[in-house]
Specification:
Elements lengths: L7 H9 L7 H21 L11 H36 L6 H42 L5 H26 L5 H34 L2
């Protein structure tokens, strides 16, 4: 059974354990998938409603995209575990001789690059969920608009969490020509995500409270 096939309780038990994986990167992927799933929920509860017939084609487009992202973020969970396991394996290599030390250091650097790419991929996916939360908050079933608000919070948490994992791995990479552009991209995604989060949350709150 892969990590993504575990029941919720089983995943949380593993997350809470002393095992190195799953960890924060895996949790980020799950949070992102939850954000996408909540967008899908609002869309599914809008489609077929007479009141929203005029926007149904747009809602269906949102639904198709959110379901695609949900699948990709769910897959990112396993990708993160595999990447971090590779890092742990590299750190576990023998270091008794100079040759072994050199081989181990090289393997660690390769593994850290993979472990940087995995959360960056997750951050990009979570970033793509954010505009969908805005769109569904604007045109979706107003009776469940609070779920659109939870969706943006989940996606933003996923994005920020993934970015932290980019930073922690990229900071240990000696090849700065590889690491720096990825840290810069992570910073940009995080800044854009914060703006979108504020916009959607404000819209949802205003709709619920009427002011």
């Amino acid at each position: 059974m892969t990590m993504k096939q575990l029941p919720v309780e089983g995943f949380l038990d593993q997350l809470a354990s002393a095992q190195p994986t799953p960890g924060g990167g895996s949790a980020a992927a799950v949070m992102g998938a939850m954000g996408a799933a909540l967008v899908s929920m609002v869309a599914n509860l809008t489609v077929g409603k007479k009141k929203y017939a005029e926007v149904e084609p747009q809602v269906k487009d949102v639904l198709a995209e959110s379901e695609k992202l949900r699948a990709q973020l769910t897959a990112a969970l396993q990708e993160d575990v595999a990447a971090f396991d590779t890092v742990m394996a590299a750190y576990g290599l023998p270091k008794d001789s100079d040759e072994q030390k050199a081989a181990r250091s090289a393997a660690i650097q390769v593994a850290l690059k993979e472990a940087t790419e995995a959360p960056l991929h997750c951050a990009r996916l979570a970033h793509q969920v954010l505009p969908l939360t805005l769109r569904i908050a604007e045109i979706g079933n107003v009776n469940i608009i609070s779920d659109a608000g939870v969706a943006v919070l989940a996606a933003q948490a996923a994005l920020r969490s993934a970015v932290l994992n980019v930073f922690v791995n990229a900071a240990a990479i000696e090849d700065k020509s590889f690491a720096q552009p990825r840290m810069d991209e992570a910073e940009r995604l995080m800044a854009e995500g914060a703006a979108m989060d504020a916009k959607v949350f404000g819209l949802v709150k205003q709709t619920i409270l009427g002011h």
